[in-house]
């Protein structure tokens, strides 16, 4: 560690920031939250007081100008991710940006370019990937215990359809279930298989009363070796967040794949085995890895190039959902 913890500023007072990421950073071993900004100064001040954050700013620009900040966390609506990530990096800050990194792969590629040109670390905030259980899952697959992987099925759904003013229901802001939760099983399949998919086919419920965003989507993502990810995601369905990896000789069942209980199960001809996992605050693990990457103590496990690759799949899913076609990636 350097002679001081990594000092984060938070751009915006979104629910994910207030309820999860800021508490996670505060619980981390490496980082602190030193400032928060809102376009409403009173809101920033109230949030700062509630979460014991030393400074509050009434504009994002003021926060980026603070010389005592090392990094910023950006939980803004999706259409603002590229602008404020780039402005932050150009202001000399490292950036942890909420998922999905951008509205499309082109925007994500531009953000990658700025990260490289400024020398500032840019990371997409998929916190679940930092729990060691995913390394354990990959080790089990590599051991051959479940045989050859034949397919993966992932889900992430919740019901929030009544909140008509939610930013998730603004199409021009990057609303919809594929952006919001479908990105999780997509990223998980890429992580587990260690490869990039070839094509996507998605069917979606496009809701006129929610600005024509996809409120529910079901799809298949084609990987090489004839392996597919089948997934469904939604914001107008009962809550689930599961993952199942099916092999020739067994399967791995993850009942709470992205949030919740970290334990999972291995099913083989010899029976069912529970893999007990230690409970961690994955937001704290994410902050610790981010800080150690900034300090050069660790290599980035998931750099912005990974986010560009994930956005390419999301682009294909959205195009398929709205055109009813299979889209090559």
UniProtKB/TrEMBL annotation:
Gene3D superfamilies: Dihydrodipicolinate Reductase, domain 2, NAD(P)-binding Rossmann-like Domain
Keywords carried by this UniProt record: Oxidoreductase
Domain GFO/IDH/MocA-like oxidoreductase: 135-253
SUPFAM superfamilies, alphabetized: Glyceraldehyde-3-phosphate dehydrogenase-like, C-terminal domain, NAD(P)-binding Rossmann-fold domains
Keyword Coiled coil annotated: no
GO terms, molecular function: nucleotide binding; oxidoreductase activity
Top-level taxon of the source organism: Bacteria
InterPro entries per the UniProt record, alphabetical: Gfo/Idh/MocA-like_OxRdtase_N, Gfo/Idh/MocA_domain, GFO_IDH_MocA-like_dom, NAD(P)-bd_dom_sf
UniProt xrefs under Pfam families: GFO_IDH_MocA, GFO_IDH_MocA_C3
Domain named Gfo/Idh/MocA-like oxidoreductase N-terminal: residues: 6-123
Family per similarity comment: Belongs to the Gfo/Idh/MocA family.
Name used for this protein in its record: Oxidoreductase
Organism: Paenibacillus selenitireducens
Lineage: Bacteria, Bacillati, Bacillota, Bacilli, Bacillales
